[in-house]
Each structure stands twice: as structure tokens, then as C-alpha cells.
UniProtKB/TrEMBL annotation:
SUPFAM superfamilies: L domain-like (SSF52058). Keywords: Glycoprotein, Signal. One of its GO terms (biological process) is fungal-type cell wall organization. Residues 1-25 form the signal peptide. This is Uncharacterized protein. Coiled coil: none annotated. The lineage of its organism: Eukaryota, Fungi, Dikarya, Ascomycota, Pezizomycotina. InterPro entries: CWI-Assembly_Regulator. Its main location: other. It comes from Zalerion maritima. One of its GO terms (cellular component) is plasma membrane. It is found in: Cell envelope.
Length: 517
């Protein structure tokens, strides 16, 4: 075995000095070590091929300088990176900057790193027997890349970093079946001369089945499509602030479970027809880049969203009480987003937020039984009905919609405040089963609302007993409190149960409270 020290030998004198060493379990194995970067150019390439043909195990990074055809000889395991390099000023005879990398015997490799290019460069990698690659990096001036790996086994690629490529119209992650994380950002995906129009702006993989940590796709120009047809499980999926030339579509037709997700995309269509659960971890910083993943799922600026089988959004079983609770949020959807259809959703451990969706008129959450909190504000919803909801662990805040009616026939417990405010159309609030509100109850009707505090009190004369305070007010056409509002808008403080009310009454006057026993 020859251990090479930096500068000990020049490539012109000798490439590698090999001493055979049988590896455990491999009778004819030869291991080759190089203690520093090994650089191969056109002059020394033939020597590299000759020596590498005797190596089954190679340790060290290999730089290929302006070598258009790279053959890795007999190497089976490469504990290092393949790094092709192309500078147009030094190799004008390679105007297209094409690298073809071959390795018929390679089975595992630490990494393929393509970032040392001065001009848009094409990279074709053929490793037909490889089953494991730790890292693939395509960064700065990669114009296209093609990965030809083993097609009869499932391939694992731990990490893929694809970023800062100004002429990369298509990204195909096949044939990787399993990955730890994927980072795709700051690429320009405009149609090129060799690109079919239907392929431009696409991120695809027909082989990817699972991603353990995260998929991050952000700030890519002209992104039009994400398609992972066989992806079933993923850690976090984050797609945000890309710049599509046309309304994009993001399809995950087989996805069943994910840890968290965030789609923040103007006019995008997101389809996840098989998604059943979101088991959210606590928020954390990514291991590669400085961005935060939040617990839960967040959807912003979308045109359409399909999740008909989503049942639960929760924290993992081993989570701590102090962890961020798994949330589900829909915010500022496009005006054409008129229906939120979650027909099987039964539980959200954190807060369910439906906020500032100007075109949203209908919400179907008919199976919802429990939420950590409920915020429905700033939408165009007329009827808000939650027929199966029994428990809200935190606050309920419903305000700023076009509400005519709020109906929660089975709601018994609110662990925080219960706040419902009309906006000119409210006629009815139906909460006949309500028993306990830990915080305050605040009901407010605006001018034009037909909701009556007096009528509500008659139906629920026990309302005083179930909350720490109760307020109900109405505003007439002149913008002043009506008769019911004057009678009922005073806050009754300190009332926890009927026995407390019998013992005493709080009288509030000029900020001085007198306790009358």
C-alpha cells in the first residue's frame, strides 16, 4: 500500500505506488490510499487508468482537470469525491464543457461534486452497479446532468445539493430511491436549446420513494413543475418563493405521511391525494443551510390544494410538552381559492388557522373533533359549521368573515377564550353543548347583524357559570351600542361557578372594586 503525502510525488513521475493488500473477505482486493487531493489531467490520465484498474478500494478525492472522458477503472469503493473541473480559458477545445464519467465496477462512492466550472457544463455519470452515493453536488454552471445507476436495485443517495446554476432547465433525481435530504435553490430553469418545452422548469424523479429529513426547493427561476409520483414518506417538504413563468403544479400522488410542510407559492396547485397524516417534529434549523422548519403544515398563496384523505396533524409520540405543537395553517390563498375541503380531518394538535383568504367561501371540516386552537378570520365564509367538534384546547377566534351562522353543536370545552365577532350578516351562534370555557366568552355583533344577545342569553342562561368572564354586545346602524349591548356588554369578572356567584358579586366602578358579601 502506498500512502501519499502532499507533494511527495508528481503526477508526471508516478501516479500511485501500489502494494497489494488483501481486504477482509476479498481475496484479490487491492487498497489504494492518497493523503491529499489527487489531480488528473489529460497528460496523466492514462497513468491513472492503468493504476486505478488494480484498485478495488480507493481513498481520497480525485480532481479531473479538463478530461472529457473519465473511466474509474476497477474501483469498487471510493472513499472520496469525484470532482470534474472545467475552465473555458484553459480548455478552449472543450467549448461545450462536456464530462462523461464511467465506472462499471463502482458500487459505493462518497460523492460526486460538480462545482468547478466557469461556463455551463454538461455532466453525464454512468455507474451502472452503484447502490450508494453519499452526496451529489451540482453547483454553479451545471447545464445538465444525467445519472445512470443500477436499475435492478434500490439506490440510496444521502444528500443532493443543486444550486446556483444559471442554465439548468431540468432536474431529475432518478434513479435514487431513498435520500436523507434534498436542497434545490437559486437555479434558473429556463428552456434551453437541447430541452423539450415540456421538460423545462421541471424537478422530477420516477424512483424516489422516501426522504428522511427534508426537501427544500426555493428561489428557482421559471420552476413550473415538481413531480415525485412514487414518493410515499418524507420528513419536511418546503417549497417557497420560487419564480414560475406560469402557474406551477406540485404533484405528490403517492405521499402518505410527512413530518411537516410549507408551500408558499403564488398561484400554485398542490396535489397530495393520499396524504393521511402529518406527524410534526419540533421546529429546528436545517443541517445544511440556515433556515427554520416549523412544526406542522403551512399553505400560502396557493390557487388549489388537494388533501382529501388528511386525518391528523400531530406531534410524535415521544415529543415533550414544551415542544411546538403541530399546526395547520391556510393564509392568503389566491382569490380563486373558494373551497377548503378536508373531509376526513379529525384532529389537529396545534392551532388550525384559516386566515385572510379573500375568496374562501366554504370550509369542509365535518369530521373535525379536536384542535389545539381555532382561528378563522378575514375570509368570505358565510356558514361555519363544525358538526363533530367537541374540544378546543386553546382559544377560538372567529372574526372578519361574512358570517351568517356559526354552528358547533357538540362543542363542550374551550381551553382558552371564545371570541366570535360578526361583520354585518351574523344571525345565529349555536353552541348548545358548551360546558366549560377556561378564559373569556366574547360575542360581538356589528351593524346589520341580526344576532341578539338577549335571545342568546335566554337559550343559554347558564353562560355565566362556564367562563371566567362573559361579554356580549351589539352595534346598531348608527355605530352605537344597542339596548342589548348596553345591558350586556359589561364584563362580569371573577365568576368561576354558580357557588361563587351566590357568595358575591363584583361591582366595577371607576376602577374601584367593592366586594359585596
Amino acid at each position: 500500500m502506498a500512502i501519499r503525502s502532499p507533494g511527495a510525488l508528481t503526477m508526471a513521475a508516478a501516479l500511485l505506488v501500489l502494494l497489494p493488500q488483501k481486504a477482509i473477505g476479498q481475496e484479490d482486493s487491492v487498497s489504494c490510499f492518497y493523503a491529499s487531493q489527487l489531480r488528473v489531467n489529460k497528460t496523466t490520465y492514462d497513468a491513472f487508468r492503468e493504476e486505478a484498474s488494480h484498485c478495488s478500494y480507493f481513498e481520497g478525492d480525485i480532481w479531473f482537470d479538463h478530461v472529457p472522458e473519465i473511466n474509474l477503472g476497477g474501483i469498487e469503493t471510493l472513499e472520496g469525491y469525484i470532482i470534474p473541473q472545467y475552465w473555458s480559458t484553459e480548455a478552449p477545445e472543450l467549448p461545450e464543457g462536456v464530462f462523461n464519467i464511467f465506472g462499471d465496477t463502482v458500487k459505493t462512492i462518497q460523492g460526486i461534486s460538480c462545482y468547478a466550472f466557469s461556463e455551463p457544463t454538461k455532466v453525464n455519470i454512468s455507474l451502472p452497479n452503484v447502490t450508494y452515493v453519499e452526496t451529489i453536488t451540482m453547483q454553479s454552471h451545471v447545464a445538465s446532468f444525467d445519472l445512470d445507476f443500477a436499475d435492478d436495485v434500490e439506490i440510496t443517495v444521502d444528500h443532493a445539493v443543486i444550486q446556483y446554476n444559471r442554465e439548468l432547465p431540468t432536474i431529475d433525481l432518478a434513479p435514487a430511491a431513498h435520500m436523507d435530504w434534498i436542497l434545490i435553490k437559486f437555479n434558473t430553469m429556463t428552456e434551453g436549446n437541447d430541452t423539450k418545452p415540456e421538460d423545462a422548469g421541471a424537478i422530477r424523479s420516477n424512483s424516489l420513494q422516501s426522504v428522511d429529513e427534508y426537501i427544500y426547493v426555493g428561489a428557482n427561476e421559471d420552476l413550473r413543475e415538481i413531480s415525485f409520483p412514487v414518493l410515499e414518506t418524507a420528513g419536511d417538504i418546503r417549497v417557497r418563493r420560487n419564480h414560475p413563468a406560469a402557474p406551477p403544479t406540485y404533484d405528490f400522488p403517492s405521499l402518505k405521511s410527512t413530518r411537516a410542510m410549507s408551500f408558499w407559492e403564488i398561484n400554485a396547485t398542490v396535489s397530495m391525494p393520499e396524504l393521511e397524516e402529518i406527524v410534526a417534529a419540533r421546529k429546528y434549523w436545517s443541517t445544511y443551510d440556515r433556515f427554520t422548519f416549523w412544526a406542522g403544515a403551512f399553505f400560502v398563496n396557493l390557487a388549489e390544494l388537494e388533501m382529501p384523505k388528511l386525518k391528523v396533524v400531530r406531534n410524535p409520540d415521544d415529543s415533550e410538552p414544551t415542544d411546538d405543537q403541530a399546526e395547520l395553517s391556510f393564509w392568503k390563498m389566491m382569490d380563486g381559492f373558494t373551497v377548503l375541503d378536508l373531509p376526513l380531518l379529525a384532529s389537529v394538535q396545534g392551532v388550525l388557522t384559516i386566515d385572510s383568504n379573500r375568496g374562501l367561501k366554504d370550509v369542509n371540516i365535518d369530521k373535525l373533533e379536536q384542535v389545539g386552537g381555532l382561528v378563522v378570520t378575514g375570509n368570505a365564509i358565510g356558514l361555519f359549521v363544525v358538526p363533530e367538534l367537541t374540544t378546543v384546547d386553546g382559544d377560538v377566534h372567529i372574526e372578519g368573515n361574512y358570517l351568517r351562522r356559526v354552528t358547533a353543536p357538540k362543542l363542550t370545552t374551550v381551553g382558552g377564550d371564545l371570541i366570535i365577532k360578526g361583520s354585518g350578516n351574523l344571525s345565529e351562534i349555536e353552541i348548545p353543548s358548551l360546558e366549560t370555557v377556561t378564559g373569556s366568552i366574547i360575542l360581538r355583533a356589528q351593524a346589520g347583524d341580526r344576532f341578539s344577545c338577549t335571545d342568546f342569553k335566554k337559550r343559554r342562561d347558564d353562560i355565566w357559570d362556564m367562563a371566567s368572564s362573559f361579554e356580549c354586545s351589539e352595534t346598531n346602524e348608527d355605530g352605537e351600542d344597542g339596548e342589548d349591548g348596553e345591558d350586556n356588554s359589561a364584563v362580569v369578572l371573577g365568576i368561576r361557578d354558580i357557588r361563587s356567584r351566590i357568595r358575591g358579586v363584583w361591582v366595577v366602578a371607576c376602577s374601584i372594586c367593592w366586594l359585596i358579601l
